[in-house]
Amino acid sequence: MSNEQKVAIVTGASQGIGAALVQAYRDRNFRVIATSRSIKPSADPDVLAVAGDIGKPETAERIVREGLERFGRIDTLVNNAGVFLAKPFAEFTQADYDNNMSVNVAGFFNITQRASTEMLKQGSGHIVTITTSLVNQPISGVPAVLASLTKGGLNAATKALAIEFAKSGVRVNAVSPGIMKTPMNPPETHAALSTLHPVGRMGEISDVVDAVLYLEGANFVTGEILHVDGGQNAGRW
Predict the structure, then answer these.
(1) Are the C-beta atoms of 155 and 225 separated by less than 8 Å?
(2) Confidence class of residue 73 from pLDDT cuts 50, 70 and 90?
(3) What is the CATH number of the domain that holds 36?
(4) Are the C-beta atoms of residues 50 and 70 closer than 8 Å to each other?
């Protein structure tokens, strides 16, 4: 590989963890392709904003095409876009199911297939997906079977792709957070949500960013589900 500036795609990049990841990769001198439904153009010439629904194949096609036209390569994909909805199983609607499958599963499939094709051509790359520790440790007060169904599938796909790509130079990992202080969780909910972690507090956006950046530089790590969850995955408390 040359010393050419590396390029990362970040989905769900308009706020919260996604926006922080864009800045973190820029701080590491990556160029960034930032995408979400509501992403705005960036004044930074090394950030390409591509608006669209990641659940649609044509959006993924455009992200990769425009990214290659602008920057010439793709080195990292962070699958951060996702939806989460907690309610009793019998109360989920067809619309709930369709939305979760579209963003969490189809979105992953669409962009990962296209980005990994470019990584395989160049013989190097890194894919990291944001999932949830509820997959392994459900919480009785947080019924969220669609999160387990979709994000659990992404954990399994992470390991499958890590093995499929193991000799290609492309690594595949996931970060599995607990409940983080993001715009999805308003401040008035924080006290109650803190009790859902063994350490007694919620996670910060920076905790997830640090985990992604660790995996970015960990060249001997692939197929890893890195839990950033205040001890949730360790067991009951």
Answers:
(1) yes
(2) very high
(3) 3.40.50.720
(4) no
What are 180-192's pLDDT values in tens digits? 988 778 888 899 8
> How distant, in Å, are the alpha carbons of 13, 26, 230 from that of 41?
12, 15, 35
The answer to pTM > 0.85 is yes
Please report whether residue 173 resides in a domain.
yes
Residue with tokens 């996670």: 203
Distance, in Å, from the CA atom of 136 to the CA atom of 13, rounded to the nearest integer, reads 26
How far is the C-alpha of 86 from the C-alpha of 28, rounded, in Å? Answer: 35
The boundaries of the domain holding residue 170 are 7-230
Amino acid at 235: G
Amino acid making up residue 77: L
Q: Is residue 54 within 8 Å of residue 103, measured between CB atoms?
A: yes
* 120 is a domain residue: yes
Check whether 157 has a pLDDT greater than 80. yes
Q: Which residues pair with 31 in a beta bridge?
A: 7
Report whether 111 contacts 60 (CB < 8 A).
yes
- Tokens describing residue 6: 């590396």
87 part of a folded domain:
yes
Query: Which tops the pLDDT comparison, 128 or 193?
Result: 128
Cβ-proximal residues to 197 (8 Å cutoff; 6+ apart), any chain: 178, 179, 203, 229, 230, 231, 232
Domain count for the chain, please give it: 1
**104-123: per-residue pLDDT in tens?**
999 999 999 999 999 999 99
Spatial neighbors of 48 by CB under 8 A, at least 6 apart, are: 31, 32, 33, 34, 42, 66, 67, 70, 71
